[in-house]
Amino acid sequence: MAAAYAALVSLTHTLNQILHPPPAIHIIFDTDQIVSLRQKADFFVDFLENHSSTSGDKRIEDLQKRIGGAAYTAEYIIEFNVRNQILAGSFVDREKISNLLFEGLYTSKQEFLFIEKELVEFKKDHVQHKNSTSTEASSSSSSSSSRPLLPIGKNTMVGFDDHMVEIMGALSTDESHLRIISIVGMGGIGKTTLATHVYTNALITEYFPIRAWFTVSQEYTEKEILLGLLHQIDNTNRNDAHVTNDGKLGDKLYKTLFGRKYLIVMDDMWDIKAWDTVKRFLPDNNNRSRILVTTRLLKLAVDFGSCSPYQLNFLDEAQSWDLLRQKIFAEGRCPIELERIGKSIAKKCRGLPLALVVIGGLLAKSKAEHWKYVEEDVTSAVYNQDEEFCMKILSLSYNRLPIYLKPCFLYFAVFPEDYSIEVPRMVMLWVAEGFIRQCGHKRLEEIGREYLEDLIDRNLILVSWRSIIGAVRTCRIHDLLSDLSRREAYKENFILSGKLYNHLHILSDTKIRPTRLSIYGGRWKGTKLMPYRSLVPTRSFLSFSKGDLTDYNAHQFPLLRVLNVVDRYPKHDVLQLINSRYVSCMGPMMLMPSSTLSRLWGLQTIVVEGKLILPIEIWQMPQLRHIEGNHINMPHPPPPDDVQKIILLENLQTLSIVRDFKCCEKLIKRIPNVKTLRNVCQTIGSNNCLRNIGLLHKLEELYMECPPCSGEIVFPCSLKELSLSECKIPWEDMSVVGSLANLESLHLWNNAAVGQKWIPKEGEFAQLKYLLIHKCELEIWEADNTHFPCLEILSLGYLNLKEIPSDFAEILPLRRIDLDNNNSNHLLASSANEISEQRENIGYDSLRVQNITSGALIIWVKRGTNLVVCGGGHIGVIITSGNQRVETRVATKDVNPECDEELTILNPNESHPVSLCMTTTTWMRRWEKQSLILDHW
Questions:
Q1: CA dist., res. 747 & res. 875, Å (int)
Q2: Contact 116, 43 (CB under 8 A)
Q3: What distance in Å separates the CA atoms of residue 435 and residue 190, rounded to the nearest whole number?
Q4: Residue 748, CB half-sphere, CA atoms under 13 Å: how many?
Q5: Closest Cα partner for 566 from 881, 885, 887, 863?
Q6: What gap in Å lies between CA 233 and CA 253, rounded to an integer?
Q7: For residue 231, is pLDDT > 50?
Q8: Among 555, 612, 554, 601, which Cα is nearest to 578's?
């Protein structure tokens, strides 16, 4: 149960927090009691991790609910009483509150002890039950020869022709040894359908005299697999069901297959154990026998190791429409009047064959006038048509997750559909929510990123953008899986998400409140929330559209830990959130002078989209992990005295964007573990020595804009990404950058480097994968393929450079050269094309040369406004609203925002003008933008 596990892990973090409070916070508590409770919490976390696969057992589910309830209650008691202690006016009041804390935690510990006794009994019964069921399974087992999950029929498979050709080719290669070919993709994408078409293809049936298909799925025994294969290979073996020795069955399978050419399909594999169970009984006859595997888990497919997995991607819009049309109409012909709405519905299925097949079945039985209702909410229509079928396929992926990944997956319910999710922010939220269990000396954020990669490998989460150094920057989730996360999260009272007006009846309830509340739209004006009477208060509030906070204030959610809104937020309300761990809102936010910020005893992350002025108290808050703002004023740390010791912000990892950052040694040593630093300096003086940046030995990402600093700057060797602007480092001094052994990405903006000639030194830039040079002095560049041996992407703009070094054609990893289309330097384009031709002549992979034009127009759209974007030719306009992409890639699209929103319109081709027409019922205004050109950001 994800909610119980998340509550327990969060409790362990809170208990650690009370044992190690910030120095400015003085909490009265019983240390032995807290330590004892922490041990109990760890015991239950271990139990849930080891028994998460016993779902369906009513007894264990009841115990999990009790564990989760006890953890929620204990954490509530701690945070409620600590908050009251921090706000108390005198020591006497704090001591009275501490007695309440002791009494409350004593009751919580007793509840944990009662549950522990029941768990001990459960473990005994579970072991006995397991032994008896294993005996029964060995004496009575049936074959599991199974059929594909998706029906086989005419034209069922669309868009996978190339995959089918490749897989059939891999099955019939000249390689004589036994090979394993794996097909990977998310549930419902068509793995089984594709494997079935390959398996039943006439060429394959002729090529492999012996064939067998076994669907492994979730529950299996060695005997079931062996019998299932034997039954298909030789029907006379059905009498072997009485054989109790798996080894004898395995030997029989081995002897049956020995010397014969065979194809075995292992469908729906979930772990390597199933393969380890059967592989020793599959002989390598050196006769081109093959194993074909389907799985949702990329890591599992890689573990087979025989050849690279075949990753099934989503269908494109044309393929989606083809499949949908064929499922609706027997002859595949669609009436012209239904084609537009049909294509729209197909597009909203997001390329998932499962959704297209189900919707096709629905539309085939629907009248034409009902299609518009399906178009309005395709996801709901899919579930309403065949919920059991869809949930059976999709929920397998969730049910098979390790317990520690389930809260992370459910958390995707907080994001609206089709939302572009910033991975660093999401991981910060996971950490603040307390989902991530400490493991050794790893940072919680590092563990969180590993969790995300695991979800990606399981084909539950989709990568939108992965940086050149391999880090996932943005991700998204398919609409059907997003709906699955919301359903499961609501079921466990883990997250309540959606439009505000859909949930007013729940928010007005005095006894039940959602643990986490995420609002996609709607105003609070007139909303009346009753005082709390529940021991599980709302801990997180997230909002994704402007104007949601009309009547909102901190008193409605006094124990809030996560606040994430896209509105301005009153400073005094933020400072009332004593238990807050994560605060993100619009700015400006002035916390000067002393603002009682240090009372927020658990604050880890503060993000302000605007100016952020921090008080000197910030140096009394060692729990801080991330500070982000568009313009941060950070005070100089106070000098130590006899009373106050030097406090290191050892947890601080992100500091962005700091204006006039004082890089003195004393300050740098206070933030020893910063990984990301974005810094803008107006002046450099004796107290602002950039040489001290080299003392940040954990720094991996640095953006720095500063006045000329030749000879005054040192970078730490840990840097992986570096972006410089206005520094005016002479090209002959670029060794200060080139000598960084771990540097993979380098951006040189606006005179970051100066001089006419650049001759890199041999052995430098050894790991550099991405190099951007933009608006810098550079006319001659003398280099060869040994200077940038790992370079993959070269981006150049607004340079007087005559040519790109011709030897770059021999840099093996180089795959792309980007040239700014706004630049009038035609010599660079000719040079890049010549390099591309040279690569083809020497037989290297092709090099893509592309012209980049960046442009953006930001406008405000009022409620009820209709926005039309159009332009000449095929311009491919992209419209985004905040982080959420408005669904269009075409030249003309109507956009109807529900409330005041900021829309950003990007035009990737400057040669085609874009016109905007905004209309309401009373007026019309028109803007013509012949050129949408901005500097890169």
A1: 28
A2: yes
A3: 33
A4: 26
A5: 881
A6: 9
A7: yes
A8: 601
Query: What tokens does 366 get?
Result: 């629907």
Q: Retrieve residue 17's tokens.
A: 């927090």
Instruction: Judge whether 582 and 432 are in contact, CB under 8 Å.
Output: yes
Contact 903, 881 (CB under 8 A): yes
Provide the pLDDT for residue 395. 86
Phi-psi region of 433 (alpha: psi -120 to 50; beta: other; left: phi over 0): alpha
Phi, psi of 194 (to 5 degrees): -65, -45
Helix (H) or strand (E) holding 436: none
Q: Is the pLDDT of residue 918 over 60?
A: no
Residue type, 68: G
Helix ranges (H only) for 258-377 are 272-278, 298-304, 317-328, 336-348, 353-364, 371-376
Q: What is the 3-state secondary structure (H, E, C) of 586-644?
A: ECCEECCCCCCHHHCCCCCEEEEEEEEECCHHHHHCCCCCEEEEEEEECCCCCCCCCCC
Spatial separation of the C-alpha atoms in residues 901 and 864, rounded to whole Å:
11
Indicate if the alpha-carbon torsion angle 681, 687, 693, 697 is positive or negative.
negative
Whole-number Å distance between alpha carbons of 130 and 112: 26
- 726: number of CA atoms within 13 Å, CB side? 11
| DSSP string computed for 83-150 | HHHHH-SSHHHHHHHHHHHHHHHHHHHHHHHHHHHHHHHHHHHHHHHHHHHHHHHHHS--------SS
List of residues 6+ apart from 624 with CB closer than 8 A: 603, 604, 605, 606, 618, 649, 651, 652
pLDDT tens readout for residues 23-59: 888 899 999 999 999 999 999 999 888 876 555 677 7
Report the 10 Å Cβ neighbour count for 796: 25
Kindly provide the residue ranges of all beta strands, DSSP E only, lying in 641-697, ordered along the sequence: 654-659, 676-680
The two three-digit tokens of residue 903, written as one number: 């829309």
Total Cβ atoms within 10 A of residue 38: 17
Half-sphere exposure of residue 832: CA atoms within 13 angstroms, side-chain side: 23
Half-sphere exposure of residue 78: CA atoms within 13 angstroms, side-chain side: 29
Q: Which ranges in 478-569 belong to alpha helices (H)?
A: 479-491, 504-507
Neighbouring CB atoms inside 10 A of 92's CB total 9
pLDDT higher for 544 or 765? 765
Digit-coded pLDDT (tens) for 560-575: 999 988 777 778 888 8
Give the residue carrying structure tokens 């002859």.
331
> Is the separation of the CB atoms in 587 and 563 below 8 Å?
no
Q: What is the pLDDT of residue 149?
A: 36
CA angle 92, 98, 99 (to 5 degrees): 95
Rounded-to-integer distance, Cα 237 and Cα 28, Å? 73
Q: At residue 644, what is the residue type?
A: Q
Expressed in percent and rounded to 5, the helix, strand and coil fractions of the chain are 40, 20, 40
Among 634, 628, 700, 632, smallest CA distance to 664 is for: 634
CA distance 838 to 832: 10
Rounded CA gap, 115 and 65, in Å?
Answer: 11
Cα 38 from Cα 15, distance rounded (Å): 6
Question: Amino acid letter at 880?
Answer: T
